[in-house]
Specification:
The chain folds into 4 domains: 84 residues, no CATH class; 61 residues, no CATH class; 178 residues, no CATH class; 80 residues. By secondary structure, the chain is an alpha/beta fold. It contains 15 helices and 10 strands.
Amino acid sequence: MEELRIVVKRNGDKVPYQTKKIYAAIAGANKDSRGEMSAHAISNAVMQTDVKLQGKREISVEHIQDMVEETLMDNKYFKTAKQFIIYRDLHNKRREANKKLMASYSDLLFTDAEDMDLKRDNANINTDAPMGIMLKLGTEGAKSWALSYGLPEKFVKAHKEHAIHYHDLDFSFITLNCLQQDLGKTLKNGFNTGHGFLREPNSIRAAASLACIAIQSSQNDCFGGQSINALDYALAPYVEKSFKKALKKVLLRAEDWLGRDTYHLIPQSIKEDIIDKLIQGNNIRYGLKGEELEAAAKAIHAEIFGKKDIEQYQSFREAKKLYHMACQDVEEETKQAMEAMIHNFNSLHSRAGSQVPFSSINFGMNTTPEGRLVIAKTLDAIDAGLGHGETPIFPISVFTLKAGVNYNPGDPNYDLFQRACEVSAKRLYPNFTNLDAPYNLKYYKPDDYNSFFACMG
């Protein structure tokens, strides 16, 4: 009857002795040495090792490995012995890494952030909050796995010796790092957060809110920074939508509507249909000036007041007033939308609820009235700061510079460049990028905002 032998593991656990595990260890080392030993030789080495271990009731794992190593050397299987030694050393390093990880876990669980560097390596995380601690536990575990099991040894060595640095090592085997998204396309097509589909917004207020949600959602799928490449182009269509709604609302309240005494008898649906056709048919948009404004006022005067004679100055002046009232309404809505966006970017949580998304916005190139309004109100919101006047850390705002667009006096957005300089002098943001630099300019296409250089952070 075969004697019952026990293997004592390093953690003190006791398990039955099994020769098949010795066979697996030698076979694995032989494979790494590219087949130095035959199957018969492996079996003989197992039996020789087993003989050396007989006569002992309890055997440590270390002693078994010493005997395997000795047997391989005695039989001059030096390549296999070398691989077995490397295997032992690797597992020793992994055990040390696990001990270090457990020590880090203890510190994370029981030490305040102000007393521990590890809890302060990302200022974007509250590591005294429960979800912040949980994130750091996962982070340290993922880093330990990547260094112990995931990366080739030569890269681990280079990383530990600071010859190279793996940025966001904890997420390197999980997902992509950093994302720049075309928010205009995201809003136009709608998007899914994983919990439901969000359709295209119908106002600047809703669009600005969804911009934050889009960044928050992508932050949960991709690690690192999340950037919007052309905020002013993305949000301009929703300024237009809000303006049309504002003008429609103003015109529905106009006195002497259609110049009829029976104003109150006209069904609401008919009024709305008339106004929709008026706005669309005459391309009445926000920010009209000069002849375009005059033409819009004439169209409103003729349709709403029912008077073709423009010399009736009082009613024509009222038509202009209605248009400007709608412009003021959308300016106020855009102001509030941009303020809410800046506040939301600094309060939304992602990554298990413990971190504010690292967000960036690029803007400054849209010369349409709607785009200019987005730029102006975004700068105003950054200038105003947060609830107690704090400088908003996020989104990191980046103003894109281009001669002919905003860089020189006389350029259509030069006034906004000057405003951006004022805000940057006060808040350190926005930063500035130069689209005229040769390595950026060669990709530039005036009608394609996706050809503009943009950055994250």
